[in-house]
From TrEMBL:
It comes from the Eukaryota. Residues 25-210 form the START domain. One of its GO terms (cellular component) is motile cilium. This is START domain-containing protein 10-like isoform X1. One of its GO terms (molecular function) is lipid binding.
Amino acid sequence: MSKGGEVAYIPDDSDFSNFQNQCESQEGWSKQYNKGGVTVWSQMQEESMTVQKIKMQIICKDLPPETLYDVLHDSHYRTKWDSNMIETCDIGRLTVNADVGYYSWRCPSPLKNRDFVTLRSWLPLGNDYMIINYSVKHPKYPPRKDFVRAVSLQTGYLIKATGRNGCILYYLTQVDPRGSLPKWVVNKASQYVAPKAMKKIYKAGLKYPEWKQRHNPGFKPWVYPEQNTLPNISLNELSLQHADSLENIDESSFTEDRMHISDNES
């Protein structure tokens, strides 16, 4: 999503339009999985053997798009359903529809865990919604010794309304994991990890209304900006996170029989 240079920027309408086109287009994508309402495509990037674009789609019957949008924003609820998450926090807000956050992610052993600092922006479009992010550097959140700092080149969600009470969720991600990963890891991601993660989000969406009724039901700062209590931060505090400035570890020697994915990992 970079527009060039070192300066972080807030995505504009053209960025959202481009992201939506990538989600909905079939051109250049290779289908990896199609089962149970979940489809996964991949697109290997010519300049890298580890940076891959993965796109997923799940049909969500009986799940209104605005509910799924709330689920993807609600960091408190995320602790209930995202078993991969180790830690998350909102660092500060840039505008009424853009903020900066930190997220650390549990990788299947023996891979090292990853973390990200991202600039996130969102756009409601009637009954459809988009949330997109990319990696930035923030002076108070430098790389940590206990994580590999990964880079989101572009990641996001597109929620499209279908019928009266359903939606389709697209998830597109292009991440540099900062590691020389074996090919079987990439294959496992598209054949097993990705479909399971999409089903988990769908199930979380179905349970959200009942949970939200018991947990501050009127608090939705992503819908009502006046509720947002995050400190204001300036774009001048941020810069683009370039992958080549980060540690690149070699995990290519790990064999598949050493990999462990528990029932709680997605």
